[in-house]
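sry for the spam today, last one i promise. C-alpha cells for design, 174 residues
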C-alpha cells in the first residue's frame, strides 16, 4: 500500500470515529476519557500516592512518574521530528494551542504504558483496569478529533515499549 493511500485510509477511519461535533452523552464521555489521560492529572495523583501510600505504593508511583517523564520525552522528540498537524476541529483547543503536533499520541502512549507497568509491578487487577482504560483513552482522542488513528496506534506501541523498558532498566540498574 502506498503511503498516500495509507494516509487517506487513516483520515477516513479517523473521521468515522469522530463524535466531537455531535453534542450528547457519547461526546461527554469521550471528552472525559480523553482528558483523563492528561499528564498533570497523573503526576499529581502519583505524587499523592507516593506521599500517603506506604512502601508498596511508593515504589510503584515512583516508577510510573519516571516512566511518564521518559514517555513524554520520547513522544516530544518524535512529534517535533515528524511535525504532523492535528486534525482540524474546535474540540481540545488546549492541546491544539500548546502542542500542534499529533504523531504519536502522548495520551495513548502514557495510558498504555501505565497499564503495562501496573501489570508488571502489580497489582494485576489494576494493570488490567489501566490497560482497558488506556485503549479507551486512545479511542477517545480520535473521537475528540485531536488525533488520527495512526497517531493512537503509534502511541500505544510506544507506550507498551516504555512500559516494558522502564521497569526492566530500573530493576537492572538499582
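last one done:
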Amino acid at each position: 500500500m502506498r503511503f498516500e493511500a495509507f494516509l487517506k485510509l487513516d483520515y477516513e477511519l479517523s473521521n468515522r470515529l469522530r463524535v466531537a461535533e455531535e453534542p450528547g452523552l457519547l461526546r461527554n464521555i469521550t471528552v472525559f476519557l480523553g482528558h483523563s489521560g492528561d499528564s498533570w492529572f497523573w503526576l499529581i495523583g502519583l505524587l499523592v500516592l507516593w506521599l500517603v501510600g506506604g512502601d508498596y505504593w511508593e515504589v510503584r508511583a515512583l516508577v510510573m512518574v519516571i516512566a511518564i517523564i521518559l514517555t513524554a520525552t520520547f513522544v516530544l522528540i518524535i512529534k517535533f521530528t515528524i511535525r504532523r498537524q492535528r486534525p482540524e476541529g474546535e474540540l481540545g483547543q488546549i492541546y491544539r494551542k500548546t502542542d500542534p503536533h499529533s504523531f504519536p499520541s502522548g495520551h495513548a502512549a502514557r495510558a498504555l504504558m501505565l497499564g503495562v507497568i501496573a501489570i508488571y509491578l502489580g497489582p494485576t487487577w489494576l494493570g488490567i483496569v489501566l490497560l482497558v482504560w488506556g485503549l479507551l483513552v486512545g479511542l477517545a482522542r480520535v473521537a475528540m478529533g485531536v488525533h488520527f488513528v495512526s497517531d493512537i496506534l503509534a502511541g500505544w506501541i510506544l507506550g507498551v515499549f516504555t512500559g516494558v523498558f522502564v521497569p526492566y532498566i530500573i530493576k537492572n540498574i538499582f
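The chain is about 80% helix and 0% strand. ok im logging off now
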